[in-house]
Design a protein that fits this description.
The protein has seven helices and eight strands, in the order ββαααβαβαββαββα. Helices cover 33% and strands 16% of the residues. It has 184 residues and is α/β, with parallel strands linked by helices.
Length: 184
């Protein structure tokens, strides 16, 4: 059985929306996802406000309240019928996120056993056929096939097969032919 590793933030958990919500509230601004086109939030926000962005992620509730990406629950449940599915999150980048991510997964993806959740830093350590991730840095070092999950910050990235949402993931892996072509 082939193995798929799936990133959390910006793939199954919508961290950008929560970051923008907190930032706009605290700094009385109106940044949108469109403002992030081709950039990370850190590239758009003034440097003197970066500590606030870090504080959001280090807060006890940030990773606990994220919205679930549309269709991800159903598609991942369907993937489990034909693939060995793991969640692989670079939690070492925010070590305070472990418990919040664990509880978030238990609530929203209870059908994924804790033994199939990998907390890591560099995803090059993963042994899988596929990695679905929004971060091209993680995909470059991964030895299987990296699949880029579209997010505002990666719109200009090339060199990987890309999926725009979970319906595209479904088409790529479950459409009968097993492999879609081009950008989905």
């Amino acid at each position: 059985m082939k193995r798929i590793c799936i990133d959390m933030d910006e793939v199954i958990a919508d961290a950008v929306t929560e970051h923008l919500l907190r930032y706009n509230r605290d700094f009385n601004e109106e940044l949108t996802q469109a403002d992030l086109h081709g950039k990370w939030l850190w590239d758009v926000v003034r440097v003197d406000r970066h500590p606030a962005l870090e504080a959001y992620m280090c807060s006890q509730d940030f990773f606990r309240v994220l919205n679930v990406m549309p269709h991800s629950q159903r598609v991942i449940r369907d993937l489990q019928k034909d693939y060995e599915v793991f969640i692989a999150t670079a939690a070492m980048e925010v070590p305070t996120s472990f418990m919040a991510k664990y509880h978030w997964l238990a609530e929203h993806f209870p059908f994924i056993p804790p033994s199939n959740v990998v907390y890591c830093g560099d995803k090059a350590i993963l042994k899988a056929d596929y990695l679905i991730d929004d971060n091209p840095r993680q995909l470059r070092r991964f030895t299987g096939e990296g699949i880029l999950y579209s997010a505002p910050h990666n719109v200009n990235v090339t060199g990987f097969r890309r999926v725009k949402d979970w319906l595209a993931v479904e088409q790529m892996f479950l459409s009968g032919n097993g492999r879609g072509l081009g950008d989905l």
